[in-house]
Amino acid sequence: MSEAQQHTYESATARIEEIIRRLDSGEAGLRETLDLCKEGRELVEFCAGELDAVGQGLEELRLDELVARLEQRPAE
Amino acid sequence: MTEQARPEGIPGVESAGPFAVGVYAKTLQARMRERARVQLFGEVFNMRRGRGAKVYFELRDGDGAVPCSMWRNDFEKLGPAADAVVDGAQIVVAGGPDYYPGSRTSSPSFSFQVTGVRVAGEGDLLAQLDRLRKTLAAEGLFEPQKQLHRPLLPRTIGVVTGEAGKARDDVLAGLHRRGWGGRVVWAFAPVQDRHAAPRITQALQDLAAIDEVEVIVVARGGGSLADLFAFCDETLCRTVALLRVPVIASVGHHTDRTLIDDVAAVSCSTPTHAAESAVPLHCTEARASVARCAASLQRHGRQAVVVRARALAQLSRAPAEHVARHRARLHQWLREIRAAGRRGCDRRRTDIRTRAVVLDRKLGAARGPETEARRARVESLAAAIAAHDPERVIARGYAVVDDREGNLITSAQAARDARAVRLFFADADVDARIEE
Predict the structure, then answer these.
(1) How many CB pairs under 8 A join A and B?
(2) Do B203 and A63 touch (CB under 8 A)?
(3) ipTM of the complex
């Protein structure tokens, strides 16, 4: 795995749009179609994960709180 | 003025009085007005034309400031020069100090009552600002921020703003409008006084030092150019230009232009707009879009298989259908052949019957009168032959005699000679013996 992990949200959505354009063209053969659908599903899952990460509700932190939290992280 | 009872003074204090404040204010006003009329020069700040009888502004330089007011009628008499009296303009004013004593319902105020104005040229601060802007531009410091990649969907946003300012709420409103629910890291800093620029600079550096922070918003509400001047600080602007994190600036109103607006990646007119720029993606719409993409991919995948499976099924049925089609055609041909055979037989049967009738008719026609005559003669001959048949004679009571060896005996002598004879009657023969 996974190519999806190397993507950013914008590159993933751009690739999904490219895949759908190719599929809509009707020019892809069976094997290519199935491969594109598989790749597209992985990218959709990646995008959905990114959206979920910013869909849990706003978290507000003061800068010093974040710094303190980050300083504690190695000890955890 | 109403008379008031004069209270006792403060024990131990030798100053004159106590005086009624209104009297003192009027006296103060008179003393102010007695002071010499002078001319001052400086830069205009916080010009407020309003709709009242007076226009107000401050005259400032590096060492101090004086609040000024001018009757609107006098101001408008300046003509085109009045339009040049704007924030940052260097002007010379004539007039003198004045004091508005106020009342029970209005506040007192001190101002330099301006009676004449001359516009001296571009304000030093604006000129200084312009020089700095040109310097930064020449060094290419307006570009680095604009080259930075701004994520479409950041997870963590840093915000530098005043802790008690309305800009904070506006930023949150903008993020809410985007449907974004990530992490906001607040770096609160003063945004107006002379301590503001270094604190803002430090806050920006601290935020940029955190890997998780993907974009920084610097937000401040509206104010005079002097109020916003902290955001024109050279150190601050150079720091912003070289940060690794894109900075989105929203300082003052849309008519204000500070140097941070030039060096930042994006300059926005309001904090709300800045927040929306920090999250370019509308998360709610994006979720719907991703769902549509997922559905589209699923549909394509299913169709790719189903359509081809149908084609294969069609192809697999083709031979059987071909055979069935031919079988049906053969059956049809067979029916047609049988029908044609029946029709041929019927036609031939009819022909034969017709010919038989014709032959019969010809046979009838071939029979003539000679045939009847021949038949009568034959019958006559047959009757003649029958008349000579010995069987018929015997039948009438006669008998035939032989010698039992087949030799007919036709006389009495022969009978005596033979002695043993046989008599043939119509029904049977009888052996007899001649005794004589």
Answers:
(1) 113
(2) yes
(3) 0.79
